[in-house]
Design a protein that fits this description.
It contains twelve helices and 13 strands. Helices cover about 45% and strands about 15% of the residues.
């Protein structure tokens, strides 16, 4: 039996003796997750037997409101006698640094990266085996819809994964999302039943952010066509993750047989380039071997070849490569030996009589 007043959560990856750290912003979802784990860990019957702590990241945004969020979290953790890890970071400074480095991040991207960097440091230092985030089914639906609007492949439509492995130089751990099957309104009802307050982030209503426009404008309209849309999108994410896992297993088996390093040299053998970023890194695949594959696998092999060089192909770029190889017809792409393509991210494609070669050229200073 679950402990009294506890919200349902996924215990699959929680084991006695684990050191679990709950990421808590002060919002309803994370407060509910912390309270539920605390209750499940302190009940006399069926206790989790875990070491529980919490982590709060102050992003240097929203001024006094963010300071008040932090005080709220500190008081809640003190009341529950849960150790709290505090981390302060300036997201505006990080955004400026990434812009200057030529790899600009949005405020949302920078804030997320800063949080997960700190989560990884907690795992690396041995202070946590897993960090738990309070993403709900609503968050999953929003994420999948955003990915769909941006033209994601199967891996993108997988949305928020229930478990993500974290490998650091010293230790390995996990990011867990045990509330992915729970609706946001269930979380709020649970807290109201306990008369437990929470903090509302004013930026969550700012429709300058894509997620907020999807949450407050687009999803309410789409629910008129399908009232169960959130569950439908969450189901799509689960299917996409399973499909992607199956494809990755197949690619792991086939790629060593299909991908050839470097360029062929006279007399046999191949000239192998050094690592990407140090010199031209090249990988090739024979056209006849590509021709023997079905269209779905062919696309994935090309994308995996580019990914092996550290590059990512869009749908249009993959189609241009298929046309270069003669598997599609595009007016803008020649399909003949010695034809070339310049793709995004310094990725260069060249077709010979027998193979397609992809080369990642070093970035010019």
């Amino acid at each position: 039996m679950p402990p009294p007043n506890a919200l349902a959560f996924d215990r699959t990856h929680l084991h006695p003796g684990d050191r679990l750290c709950v990421a808590i912003s002060g919002g309803a979802d994370s407060v509910a997750l912390l309270l539920t784990l605390h209750a499940a860990n302190t009940t006399r019957r069926d206790a989790l037997g875990i070491g529980l702590s919490a982590v709060h990241v102050h992003h240097g945004l929203r001024g006094e409101e963010a300071d008040t969020d932090q005080r709220f979290v500190q008081e809640l953790c003190a009341h529950l006698e849960v150790p709290l890890h505090l981390h302060h970071v300036s997201i505006p400074e990080r955004v400026a640094e990434t812009r200057a480095a030529g790899t600009p991040e949005t405020i949302e991207e920078a804030a997320r990266a800063a949080r997960y960097d700190f989560f990884s440091s907690l795992i690396a230092s041995g202070q946590a085996d897993s960090v738990l985030t309070a993403h709900t089914l609503d968050d999953q639906a929003e994420t999948v819809l955003i990915k769909l609007l941006r033209g994601a492949w199967t891996e993108g439509l997988g949305g928020i994964h229930p478990i993500v492995l974290v490998n650091t130089t010293s230790r390995s751990g996990k990011i867990l999302r045990p509330l992915l099957h729970t609706r946001r309104h269930e979380v709020e009802s649970f807290l109201q039943s306990l008369n437990q307050p929470w903090r509302e982030d004013s930026s969550n209503t700012d429709t300058a952010f894509t997620r907020n426009r999807v949450r407050h404008e687009l999803l309410p309209q789409l629910r008129l066509f399908n009232p169960s849309l959130d569950h439908t999108l969450a189901n799509l994410a689960e299917l996409a993750r399973e499909e992607e896992s199956r494809w990755q297993a197949e690619l792991s088996r086939l790629l060593p047989q299909l991908l050839l390093p470097g360029k062929p040299v006279r007399g046999g053998g191949r000239a192998v380039s050094t690592a990407a970023g140090q010199s031209n890194a090249t990988v090739a695949v024979e056209l006849e071997r590509l021709r023997a594959l079905d269209p779905a696998l062919r696309r994935r092999v090309l994308r995996a070849a580019a990914r092996q060089l550290g590059a990512r192909l869009s749908f249009d770029e993959t189609s241009r490569l298929l046309a270069l190889c003669g598997f599609l017809t595009l007016r803008t792409v020649a399909s003949k030996p010695s034809a070339t393509l310049q793709l995004a991210g310094n990725l260069h494609a060249e077709r010979s009589a027998r193979e397609l070669r992809l080369t990642l050229r070093p970035t010019k200073p």
